Amino acid sequence: MSKQKFQAHLGMSDILPGESSAWLRVEKIIRETAREFHFEEIRTPIMEPTELIARGVGQLTDIVSKEMFAFERGDDKYVLRPEGTAPVCRAYTEHNLGQRGGTQKLFYIGPFFRAERPQKGRRRQFHQFGAELMGSADPLADVEIIHFMMTVYKKAGIKGTSLKINSVGDPESRKTYKTALQDYFRPHLDKLSEISKTRFESNPMRILDSKEEEDQDLITGAPKITDYLSESSKAHYELVKKYLAALDIPFVEDSRLVRGLDYYTETAFELVSGDIGSQDALGGGGRYDLLIEEIGGQPTPAVGFACGFERLFLAAEAQGISFEKEQSADVYIVTRGDEARLWALKQLPLLRSNGLSATMDYAGRSIKAQMKDANREQAKFAIIVGDSELETGQFTLRNMTESTEEAMALDELISKITSA
Ligand code: HAM
Fold this sequence. Notes:
420 residues; alpha+beta; BirA Bifunctional Protein, domain 2; Rossmann fold; eight-stranded mixed sheet; five-stranded mixed sheet; elongated; binds histidyl-adenosine monophosphate
């Protein structure tokens, strides 16, 4: 019978032992930044009701119309979450988080799923870190969110990023703008790509987002949303720019930035990098003042961002930044004989409770093979134990980097290793 070998699904990757320490390092930076900005962690389920995502993200978006991993079980419709904002809004509403008073400042880290065509920087399972600030309509909140995002990249040492900002206005501004856009594109409808033609009636702003060659000239000449903003949207946008300048956060205004999710109002932004290929957005976000009400909650203004881990690592790799911490053991117990193995098994907890990373041989190998294994584990020290050491209570401590050996009692040995 032939043995079947399995592979992970297309666009879904294992994070292997050599890679996981880099993930931990970046997660640590994010948690540190969240603490400094005083955001609390929220963890929502990996699956959500399909209707929540359809309504929250928007029926006509690429995500909902063709990229959802969805299935039914009994009467319930499940979807693997494609993004974090609608789920956090659901949790906010379901648990009345607003009643805790003040603004809710939440962050999350986790896997997300979109059935996209995999390519560099585009996976079917990817990982985001994100933050949502709920209960404030103040432009200051927008800038806190952007500042949080930028701080993570700064701490990670990623350079050459560019922050693009735009305002997509309030519903009133968008209504006037939508008409202006349709008036502009209507005489040229036949020249637009097929995908843009389908967006003409339903969501003409998404035409601006088109990557199709034949749309580009027309898009360049299209009216700009910033010329159609209502007084209050204009005032909001001006304050966002003023606060960004006050924090010395450089930005580029991009009136074509519309984002691929339908819930945005007012501020929209993206952090891009020239180092990661055609999927150049490290992260993005914006204000979504109507979303919580849209999914059944009380009207609550909110703003947030999310960024992809995989793209952060692509930028780091291109810039020669390595997060990988040396994964070495502090100490490896090398044993000779069954008594010594039993002793080692019982001493490991003591070493570990002293904060040391400690391991031993699990395969009954020869002393020589164990020393080789200790080297492979990059152990800093080896404790060598046999019957005579057990009798005298004096153990051999080998400093693996200096290749020196000394005999000493167990407590002396522990303090020597911990202070090394
Ligand atoms: P998004 O722009 O769809 O926004 O995704 C944010 C980031 O997640 C992207 O910039 C990218 O780094 C990463 N990402 C998205 N899809 C993939 C993929 N298929 N493969 C690899 N990385 C990917 C949102 O998700 C919004 N929820 C952001 C937000 C939060 N808006 C307000 N609050």
